[in-house]
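Sample intake sheet
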Amino acid sequence: MANPNGEKIRARTHQLWEEAGKPEGRDEEFRRRAELELRMEDEQLDKLKEPPNNLPG
């Protein structure tokens, strides 16, 4: 599983918070969501880099 760095997480957390109208008291919610999104993106990129297993021959 990929591990996004702290700066990416902070930037995405801030973006999510702003998009939600800058609500107070939901910091942890946005941080968890940002980390999850970034992990999923990294996993998708890793899958694209893997060679296909089902080549004929």
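Comment: Residues 6-49 form one domain. The radius of gyration is 16 Å.
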